Amino acid sequence: MPADGPRPLGEVLKEVIDELGVQEEVDEARVVETWASLAGEKINSVTESAWMKGSTLYVKITSAAWRQELHMNRRKWRDRLNGALEAELVDEIVFR
Protein backbone atom coordinates (compact mmCIF):
# COMPACT_ATOMS: atom_id res chain seq x y z
CA MET A 1 0.00 0.00 0.00
CA PRO A 2 1.60 3.31 -1.05
CA ALA A 3 2.25 5.99 1.53
CA ASP A 4 -0.32 8.79 1.69
CA GLY A 5 2.27 11.51 1.48
CA PRO A 6 5.95 12.37 1.71
CA ARG A 7 8.04 10.37 4.16
CA PRO A 8 11.33 11.30 5.81
CA LEU A 9 14.31 10.34 3.68
CA GLY A 10 15.98 8.55 6.61
CA GLU A 11 12.96 6.26 6.94
CA VAL A 12 12.99 5.43 3.22
CA LEU A 13 16.77 4.79 3.22
CA LYS A 14 16.48 2.47 6.22
CA GLU A 15 13.85 0.42 4.41
CA VAL A 16 15.99 0.21 1.26
CA ILE A 17 19.09 -0.79 3.26
CA ASP A 18 17.07 -3.47 5.09
CA GLU A 19 15.56 -4.79 1.83
CA LEU A 20 18.98 -4.98 0.18
CA GLY A 21 20.56 -6.60 3.24
CA VAL A 22 23.53 -4.21 3.26
CA GLN A 23 23.31 -2.80 6.80
CA GLU A 24 26.64 -4.40 7.79
CA GLU A 25 28.45 -2.82 4.83
CA VAL A 26 26.88 0.56 5.57
CA ASP A 27 27.95 0.31 9.23
CA GLU A 28 31.51 -0.67 8.23
CA ALA A 29 31.78 2.32 5.90
CA ARG A 30 30.47 4.63 8.66
CA VAL A 31 33.06 3.29 11.11
CA VAL A 32 36.00 3.80 8.72
CA GLU A 33 34.79 7.27 7.73
CA THR A 34 34.22 8.29 11.35
CA TRP A 35 37.64 6.93 12.36
CA ALA A 36 39.31 9.14 9.74
CA SER A 37 37.35 12.15 10.97
CA LEU A 38 38.21 11.54 14.65
CA ALA A 39 41.84 10.62 14.02
CA GLY A 40 42.68 13.99 12.52
CA GLU A 41 45.42 15.12 10.18
CA LYS A 42 48.48 13.84 12.09
CA ILE A 43 47.21 10.28 12.55
CA ASN A 44 45.72 10.16 9.05
CA SER A 45 49.14 11.09 7.67
CA VAL A 46 50.59 7.87 9.13
CA THR A 47 47.55 5.69 8.35
CA GLU A 48 47.99 3.42 5.34
CA SER A 49 44.52 1.85 5.50
CA ALA A 50 41.59 1.07 7.77
CA TRP A 51 38.99 -1.67 7.48
CA MET A 52 36.43 -3.61 9.48
CA LYS A 53 36.24 -7.36 10.01
CA GLY A 54 33.26 -8.27 12.15
CA SER A 55 33.19 -5.80 15.03
CA THR A 56 36.95 -5.14 14.94
CA LEU A 57 38.45 -2.06 13.29
CA TYR A 58 41.93 -2.64 11.86
CA VAL A 59 44.12 0.39 11.21
CA LYS A 60 47.46 -0.01 9.43
CA ILE A 61 49.89 2.60 10.78
CA THR A 62 53.22 3.31 9.08
CA SER A 63 54.92 4.77 12.17
CA ALA A 64 55.98 2.44 14.98
CA ALA A 65 55.84 5.28 17.52
CA TRP A 66 52.29 6.26 16.53
CA ARG A 67 51.23 2.60 16.41
CA GLN A 68 52.43 2.11 20.01
CA GLU A 69 50.75 5.30 21.23
CA LEU A 70 47.46 4.41 19.57
CA HIS A 71 47.60 0.83 20.83
CA MET A 72 48.04 1.98 24.43
CA ASN A 73 44.93 4.17 24.09
CA ARG A 74 42.83 1.82 21.95
CA ARG A 75 39.99 1.55 24.49
CA LYS A 76 39.65 5.35 24.65
CA TRP A 77 39.62 5.49 20.85
CA ARG A 78 36.98 2.73 20.73
CA ASP A 79 34.80 4.63 23.19
CA ARG A 80 35.19 7.91 21.28
CA LEU A 81 34.41 6.17 18.00
CA ASN A 82 31.29 4.42 19.30
CA GLY A 83 30.22 7.68 20.93
CA ALA A 84 30.56 9.57 17.66
CA LEU A 85 28.64 6.81 15.85
CA GLU A 86 25.99 6.78 18.59
CA ALA A 87 26.11 2.97 18.38
CA GLU A 88 28.27 0.15 19.74
CA LEU A 89 29.62 -0.93 16.35
CA VAL A 90 33.27 -1.44 17.37
CA ASP A 91 34.31 -3.92 20.05
CA GLU A 92 38.05 -3.69 19.42
CA ILE A 93 40.60 -1.64 17.48
CA VAL A 94 43.78 -3.31 16.27
CA PHE A 95 46.66 -1.13 15.14
CA ARG A 96 49.10 -2.84 12.79
From TrEMBL:
It comes from the Bacteria. Pfam families: DciA. InterPro entries: DciA-like (IPR007922). PANTHER family: UPF0232 PROTEIN SCO3875 (PTHR36456). This is DUF721 domain-containing protein. It comes from Salinibacter ruber (strain DSM 13855 / M31).
